[in-house]
């Protein structure tokens, strides 16, 4: 019977009418018009309904899209609506409504051991969520249903790349950590819980972060995701002969919607006598049996979701505007990260006069936070804009040469354990793709200051810089 049905599906390329024929009392008569059969054959998967496609609650073999393994080999192939086809004509399938088909009850599927030597950064983010954000709570992960929150709701999918590929977040979370050739890195925004785990839509009133975010390398991110994927699929170390196969319950059946499981962070592969491996092990402080949950300054979460007009992603852009775009906060800090701008005007016959202005964008309008009028500033000297009601931390500016473009900027006060500070040199560059100009990672750009007198070609230089602050 199955063979004849599949042969029919391969040959027919027209709309096919399915009629349910009652074979007893009280069964309704239904007429269903499915999608084009050929389209269905090109897109078959066990969760979709194309043409005459079954929804399976049991294991599937991977050798052919038409070969499936059911617990009961005598059961006819059901339709997506639960009917059983029993006769085919040229344009009609006769189907019997089957009241005996019962979806399997969700089940506990065991423990996924996440190898933290294989993916230390992904482990760090997952451990922070499970052991720190959710400290004291029983955390289990659930196979998602169709309404599970997507990456937009977690704050990862935005209108340009991901937050870690944007200023000011790339500046804050990646530039201080990386000194190598940054253009070769495939930096991604890691999220936990993962997309393949049941999640709720973003709730601005939630009392704790719903997702933990961290900027990590793409390879580490992929390895972490593949670990959970192999556990869910029963392959790799959870497949036949794998060292963790006994931890996966219900093998080899695939996961069904609603199945749940635990995550354990596996540290057993580290050679603690190797200095390099020992350093990585020690850095996994959120994953140890007694975790140290003090934020290292790189764990963050979305605090406000602002959707694009079509709702397809969260809003991010340049210049970053915390009133119009998604907002993000280092977990545990009292305020969201903003993009501060500092403008230094260097004027005078010997370029000795320097003025300053600090501002942010709010709903597309420059909002000034602090300023300083022009005053003499020699090489090797500095000035400080003090903290105020509008400027959360002081800003110190040092002049590094007699030229117009050599300055150092320090926001906040560095101290052991403090993370609310940031420093840079006016000639520094970062790696983030979406800076003030796409693929131009310079922290500062310069422009001529035109004199109001048209007889004077220029009267100075303006240095415009941007940095993350809160």
UniProtKB/TrEMBL annotation:
<keyword id="KW-0732">Signal</keyword>
<feature type="region of interest" description="Disordered">
    <location>
        <begin position="200"/>
        <end position="219"/>
    </location>
</feature>
<feature type="compositionally biased region" description="Polar residues">
    <location>
        <begin position="207"/>
        <end position="219"/>
    </location>
</feature>
<protein>
    <submittedName>
        <fullName>Uncharacterized protein</fullName>
    </submittedName>
</protein>
<feature type="signal peptide">
    <location>
        <begin position="1"/>
        <end position="20"/>
    </location>
</feature>
